[in-house]
Structure formats: structure tokens, C-alpha cells
Amino acid sequence: MSTPTAPAHPTRISLAVRDSSTMLRRNLLHARRYPSLTLNLLLTPVMLLLLFVYIFGDAMSAGLGGGADRSDYIAYLVPGLLLMTVGSTTIGTAVSVSTDMAEGIIARFRTMAIHRGSVLIGHVIGSVLQCLMSVVLVGAVAVAIGFRSTDATALEWVAAFGLITLFALALTWIAVGMGLVSPNAEAASNNAMPLIFLPLISSTFVPLHTMPGWFQPIAEYQPFTPAIETLRGLLLGTPIGHNGWLAIAWCVGLAVLGYFWSASKFNSEPK
What we know:
Elements: H1 12-33, H2 36-54, H3 57-61, H4 70-103, H5 105-111, H6 117-144, H7 154-181, H8 185-191, H9 194-200, H10 216-220, H11 224-236, H12 243-267
Helix pairs in contact: 1-6, 2-4, 2-6, 4-6, 4-7, 4-8, 4-11, 6-7, 7-8, 7-11, 7-12, 11-12
């Protein structure tokens, strides 16, 4: 008669996956129960899209040169606003993390027998999913008002999706760090405002060469501009040049910085 074997103990990786999945479900449930923050942040790029197309479209298209019209400006504008949508959506992550800190749930999670990193991983994965859904919604509005990307191949669409996902991951880790160091939700929202402000001083709305000479380096040497130019090139067939490598470097650098910043702050014992 064979003796029963003892059940296998779950590995460290399986525990991390299980706990991270639980935290992901928790964050998605919170987002579903309190959608007002996500909707408010989503309205910003949508309103800017409609404003710049229907109010300023004819005037702004003149900056593109070559007899460009409003339809040309829609094509130019949309890639930048898609990445601006990512930036605005991640502000909700900073607020959510800060709220968890202020309400003490993070401190409680620290005392529970769960994988410590699962709390942050759940926030990050949930935020990236929300970013992608927001991008799809803004993209649908753009298509409804005339945006077309007929020249992009299937491979370029996959590359564009990968870039948006990587960009969302990088900004989300930065937003998590901002949430962890903020004393309350209002401070987290204020600290994360650069994620909306930086696209406004990038190549989202006008080409770099139309800006004043002293301002061009400010707009060029920041994370949004190379990512926007890369996404624009993938969707519209415009030259990408060195922007592709710069965009990847910015994404990887910000993701690594945000991860270590967030992990250090999360693992430090409260004083």
C-alpha cells in the first residue's frame, strides 16, 4: 500500500504570481467602483483633441507647411495625444497608491504573509491595462473625427502597441514612486502633474522647428518627444531617425528608476 505523498509547497515565483494577481483584481475592482478619477483624466486628452482639431485646426495646420489642412493636422496630432493619454491616466495610479498609504492599507499589507512586491506589481499592471484601454478610447474618438493610418503595416502596428505599452510601464513606475512619497492624494496629484505638463511642451501640437530657438532644446530633450516622433513614424510613415532608440532608452531608464525608487520607499520601515 503506497503512502500518500505530501502536497508540494508552492514556489516563491508561484506565490508572487498568486499574490500579484490578487492585488491586480483588487485594483481593477477599485477602478470599476470609482471610475470618476479615470474619466476625469481621460477627458483631458479628448477635449484637447476636439479643441485643437475643430477650433485651432486650420491655424495649427499652417505650421506643418506644404499646404497642409485640417486632416493633415489630425494625423499629426493624434500620436502625441495618445501618449499624453498615457501620462494623464498614470496620475490616477499616483493618487491610488498615495490613498493606500494614507489609509494604512500598505502598512497592513507589510504585516501579512504575502509577497511584498505583489502590492506594487498589482498597481503597475492594473495601471498599464487602464492606460491601454484609455488609449483605445481616445484612438476611437480620433478615428471618428477623421484620423487614418492606412500606410502602417501590421508589424508597425505591433511595434506601436509595444511602444505605448513600454511607455505606460515606465510612467506607471514613476507614478507609483510619486504616490509613495506623497502625504495625501492631493499632493500625489500635484506631484504627478509633469506627466501632463511635459506633453504640452513637446512636439505633440507643433513641430520642433516652429518653436523659438531657445525653447527647442527644452522640447526635444525630454521623454515625450522621441516617443511621440517614433509613434508618429510608425503610424504615419514619417522618418523616425534616432528617435526610436531614444524612446526605448527613456522608457527603460524611467522604468528602472521608478522601480528602484518605488521598491526602496515601499520596503523602508515607516518612522
